[in-house]
Design goal:
Helix content of chain B: 55-70%
CATH superfamily of the largest domain in chain A: P-loop containing nucleotide triphosphate hydrolases
Order of helices and strands of chain A: EEEHEEHEHHHEHEHEEHHH
Largest sheet of chain B: 2 strands, antiparallel
Strand content of chain A: 15-25%
Strand content of chain B: under 5%
Strand order of the largest sheet of chain B: 1-2
Number of helices of chain B: 16
Number of helices of chain A: 10
Order of helices and strands of chain B: HHHHHHHHHEHHHHEHHEEH
Radius of gyration of chain B: 21 Å
Distance between the termini of chain B: 15 Å
Helix content of chain A: 25-40%
Low-confidence stretches of chain B: 339-343, 348-356
Bound molecules: adenosine-5'-triphosphate, magnesium ion
Number of strands of chain A: 10
Shape of chain A: globular
CATH architecture of the largest domain in chain A: 3-Layer(aba) Sandwich
Oligomer: heterodimer
CATH class of the largest domain in chain A: Alpha Beta
Chain lengths: 247, 356
């Protein structure tokens, strides 16, 4: 079986509202897979399904061929699937170092080993000077980096980033793109990138899935997505002014 | 970056400072030496045990428990059963197993048995409770307290029901209580800096993110619940030996309220807060008690009307919480050499200016 994290035929309903309908998506190792779509399309819901936070009402999720449906979130992380959250969700009362250490101890390291790894990770993502700062109240971009560092601890097999560039300037988004390239080159995990910054997605992803109202409406390499009439259509109205220009 | 000192090297001053504070109380008892004064200090040490016990679970998990005093009750009766004279047990508590009825152990064994029994009970209750969270968990802990108190209030042949169990050997020297308080502070500190303690505090801040970091939240909560249950049992046993009498009523809402108050007033997310809350509120309570009895100032005798003590303590708590909503310690730990409260429990916010 190929090394990938995949959802096949996944459906999720919330009391009548169909958030995902028969979604099939594949996140191969060593590649960046993009997931785009208008607000409310179901992107976060899909990440929740892939990480055990949301039980699908239909379909399966498999990690390198093994089904992980019904596995609780903490075990999903222990199996090597890491994620970030749209809203940051740092441990506000803990230091930045401790935020990373938590993943270390969650994955079975002693505090001493976890702290060593956390220090190295902070260095690697370029924020060693933040180690002893409280995570609550960090500037936005630093917060995003800490969240990525926390997810990257102990080199997960798959990393799912939920809108990591939200609220970033063009320059900051550029730095993020570089970080993502380094992750792929050095950690070699499979990466799922959810973003509204279509420019970033088109430049960095190998393969892109477009979700609209819970359904995958287009799949393909950036060039194809860029040219797609259907994608253009889905974005019309909701985000025509901002993203329309980039497409 | 240079090698970072270990967590122990960075934080060991906190338990040392707390033990020094307790040591001052012990020295005061030695210096004064009067029976009533010793009893006051003993009471403080017992409360330190109880409130630190609460802290281990509540402070680290952020889940308020109204049930912990139930484990205190279990500990108190356990040591009573083991350490009372067989003759008394045979007349009053006939339902106890023969092996307990026929024997009398030293109080040290009573304390140990209390810790183990209450810890096991907490483990069993926690197995079920720790799946709940938020207000549901808090209410469920209260149910545990109610169940324990009801059982002990009605199980006549074993607990004497609502009548007092008298004849528990009284320990009047102060140092055993002092040693227990120290031991409990050290256990709480060790748990706090352990992997489990860190994971639990992460879950307290952001449960979802903690799960996404590999933390098995019910398991970490259960560990803390069990340890704190054991500590509460120790507190109950110490209480039993400090007064020689127990009734189920002693371990109900009154004690639940006062211990929780001390934790909240001190700062419920820090060990220092737990200890300081007890020491400071206990001192205030004691002063008020003396004033209720009457003090002579310049020949005139002043006495507060009875009941003022409860009202005053309530007012003091409200005032403290108005000015320090996160408690006297602001949820931070006492550290040396910094002369102000600072800490590893709660690192400096970036807005503070200087980077640490
Ligand atoms: N727990 C829930 N209960 C009920 N409805 C939900 C729940 N979570 C999501 N939804 C709904 O499911 C749909 C998909 O939401 P989701 O958060 O996955 O969208 P998204 O693509 O991530 O959007 P955004 O770009 O705004 O983050 C939305 O209509 C949302 O309101
Ligand atoms: Mg979303």
């Amino acid at each position: 079986m190929a090394q990938s994290l995949s959802a096949s035929d996944v459906s999720v309903s919330f009391e009548g509202l169909r958030a995902l309908s028969n979604v099939t998506l594949d996140v191969p190792r060593g590649k960046v897979t993009g997931l785009i779509g208008p607000n409310g399309a179901g992107k976060t819901t899909l990440v929740n399904v892939l990480t055990g936070f949301q039980k699908p009402t239909g379909g399966t999720v498999s990690l390198d061929g093994e089904s992980i449906v019904g596995v609780p979130p903490y075990k999903v992380r222990q199996k090597g699937i890491a994620r970030t959250f749209q809203s940051g969700r740092l441990f506000a009362d803990l230091s930045v170092l401790d935020n990373l250490e938590v993943t270390g101890v969650g994955l079975g390291l002693s505090r001493h080993e976890a702290a060593k790894k956390a220090d190295r990770m902070l260095e690697w993502i370029g924020i060693p000077h933040l180690a002893e700062r409280a995570a609550g109240g960090l500037p936005y971009t630093d917060e995003r980096r800490v969240a990525i560092g926390r997810a990257l601890m102990l080199e997960p097999k798959y990393l799912l980033l939920d809108e990591p560039a939200a609220g970033m300037s063009a320059e900051e988004a550029n730095d993020l793109a570089q970080l993502i390239r380094r992750i792929i080159a050095e950690v070699r995990c499979g990466l799922l990138l959810i973003e509204h910054n279509i420019g970033l997605v088109l430049t960095i992803c190998d393969h892109i899935h477009v979700l609209d109202s819970g359904e995958v409406i287009e799949v393909g390499p950036p060039a194809l997505i860029k040219a797609s009439e259907r994608v253009r259509h889905a974005y019309m109205g909701t985000q025509a002014e901002t993203e329309g220009a980039v497409l | 970056m240079a090698d970072r000192p270990s967590i122990l090297a960075r934080t060991w001053t906190t338990p040392v400072i707390l033990i020094v504070i307790l040591g001052v109380l012990q020295l005061a008892a030695l210096a004064v030496g009067s029976g009533p004064f010793n009893q006051t200090i003993i009471e403080i040490f017992i409360r330190v045990v109880l409130v630190v016990g609460l802290f281990v679970f509540i402070g680290n998990s952020g889940v308020i428990s109204f049930g912990h005093i139930g484990f205190t009750c279990l500990g108190a009766y356990m040591t009573a059963w083991l350490t009372m004279l067989p003759a008394i047990k045979k007349s009053k508590l006939k339902g106890l197993p023969d092996i307990i009825l026929d024997n009398k152990l030293a109080y040290g064994w009573g304390l140990l048995a209390a810790v183990i029994f209450a810890g096991l009970a907490a483990y069993a209750a926690g197995k079920v409770l720790m799946r709940l969270s938020g207000i549901a968990a808090s209410i469920a802990t209260f149910a545990v307290l109610a169940v324990i108190i009801q059982v002990y209030s009605n199980w006549d042949s074993v607990t004497g029901a609502q009548s007092s169990v008298v004849g528990i050997p009284i320990v009047r020297v102060v140092w055993p209580y002092f040693l227990c308080a120290i031991a409990v502070v050290l256990v709480a500190y060790a748990h706090q800096i352990s992997r489990s303690g860190l994971a639990l505090r992460a879950a307290r801040d952001e449960a979802t993110a903690a799960s996404a970091s590999g933390v098995n939240i019910p398991r970490e909560r259960l560990i803390a619940f069990t340890i704190s249950g054991g500590i509460m049992g120790l507190g109950g046993a110490l209480f039993a030996h400090s007064v020689g009498v127990v009734t189920p009523d002693t371990f109900y809402l009154g004690l639940t309220f006062i211990t929780l108050s001390m934790l909240v007033v001190g700062g419920m997310n820090s060990l220092s807060g737990a200890v300081l809350g007890v020491v400071i509120l206990s001192i205030i309570i004691q002063l008020l008690r003396w004033m209720e009895k009457g003090v002579d100032i310049g020949g005139a005798s002043f006495a507060l009307p009875l009941g003022v003590q409860e009202i005053a303590i309530g007012v003091v708590m409200i005032v403290i919480l108005m000015y320090r909503p996160s408690g006297l310690t602001k949820n931070r730990e006492l550290v040396w050499p910094s002369n102000k409260l600072s800490g590893w429990g709660k690192p400096k916010a970036p807005a503070d200016g200087k980077t640490v």
